[in-house]
Amino acid sequence: MNRRELPIKFEEVSEEEKAQMKRPVGRNYGLVRGTPGNILLPARYADLASSIYNFEFRSDDIVVVTYPKTGTVWTAELLWALTHLDQLHTLDTDHISLRNFFIDRDFIFPPSKDDPSPLVKAFLEKFPNGRVEDGVVLQLAKAETGRRIIKTHLPLHFFNEDLLKKTKVVYVARNPKDTCVSYHFFLRQRQDQTVECDFPTMAEQFMTDKCNYSPFWGHIQPAWDLRDHPNLHFVFYEDMKADIVKELQKINDFLSLDLTVDQLTKVAEATSFDNMRRRDQNQPLVKGTFFRKGIIGDWKNMATPELDAKMDRWIAENSKKLGITFRYA
Ligand code: A3P
């Protein structure tokens, strides 16, 4: 394939603006905004952007695209389970990060050769002289010969057109209130990169696009606009929580998998919050708590009435522009 020219332009976030940002990962070593969309990313993304944009998709790939903290890991895991029914017994033995390709890991948590993670170990086993700085996940994904479940928080338009022409994309959205709460607790654990801030400050950062991959609405919009595209399936976290088998049935139809209700129920059980959390206790995905609560409506335990009213105004203004409605309970 001829290398495509990268259509994304970068602007470095100024020191002055960075000083106002408490929470983006990358604030210690540089941040960029990628346009179109003005998406806030660690500067290391810029080094890999062309390789990511030129990533060669295959027709049997399934790509999960999400804004962070909206159910990405859950969705990737259930897609893997749906497509690897005969291997469900390995869920308890193999590390979760080896079941899908989280492309962003290469620039969000840039690997080094002495990184003890299972992913880097797997990379070095496969490529003993490989260059981790060229992207561990990218290279492992290229080398994979089986069906790939690929996961990214980059918005749709940061990939070449083959993404939607060739592959099946599942876009997951979660209501912004719970996304913000989940993001708060997740980033609090990343104290090597972020600065401690209280929840109202975090909510302010979230609403003013000072978190990685923000703006929230600008991330959803390209996917929401394409929600009727035959190769894109748009799903809400809240709907998965309300009736997972029903949502799995829709994914089953979208991917033409032809699974029975019994098989879908088995997948739902294997990827339930409790089971994923239990497995994470033996083989953690990240340092700290990843499987935190997994509920709808935690915002109400966190926000004051004033903050809630402010968030409601922000949501009303933006969701109206998109024509999207979220559920909060
Ligand atoms: P909470 O922090 O609200 O608990 P992401 O994978 O995009 O980072 O999203 C993480 C959120 O999804 C966390 O939300 C996590 O607990 C929740 N989650 C992960 N697995 C889940 C599951 N099987 N069922 C429901 N929620 C899940």
Structure write-up:
With 329 residues, this protein is α/β, with parallel strands linked by helices. Helices cover 43% and strands 11% of the residues. The chain is built from 15 helices and eight strands. The strands form two sheets. A five-stranded parallel beta sheet has the order 5-6-4-7-8, with helices on both faces. A three-stranded antiparallel beta sheet has the order 1-2-3. A hairpin with a 3-residue loop joins strand 2 (31-35) and strand 3 (39-42). Helix 5 (118-126) packs across helix 6 (136-143) and helix 12 (244-254) packs across helix 13. The longest helix has 18 residues, at 305-322. The protein is globular, with a radius of gyration of 19 Å. The model has no long low-confidence stretch (mean pLDDT 96).
- Globular, elongated, flat, extended or rod-shaped: what is the shape? globular
**What is the averaged pLDDT score?**
96
Note the main sheet: 5 strands, parallel
Series of secondary-structure elements, N-terminal to C-terminal: EHEEHEHEHHHEHEHHHEHHHHH
Number of helices: 15
> End-to-end distance, in Å?
47 Å
| Structure summary, number of beta strands | 8
Percent in helix: 40-55%
Radius of gyration in whole Å, from Cα? 19 Å
Q: Detail the poorly predicted runs.
A: none
Main attributes?
globular; alpha/beta; 3-stranded antiparallel sheet; binds adenosine-3'-5'-diphosphate; 5-stranded parallel sheet; 329 residues
Which helices and strands occur, and which strands form pairs?
Layout lengths: L8 E4 L2 H6 L10 E5 L3 E4 L1 H10 L8 E5 L5 H12 L17 E2 L2 H4 L9 H9 L9 H8 L5 E4 L9 H5 L1 E6 L2 H13 L10 H9 L8 H10 L6 E5 H6 L1 H11 L6 H10 L2 H10 L22 H18 L7
Parallel strand pairs: 4-6, 4-7, 5-6, 7-8
Antiparallel strand pairs: 1-2, 2-3
The protein binds adenosine-3'-5'-diphosphate (A3P).
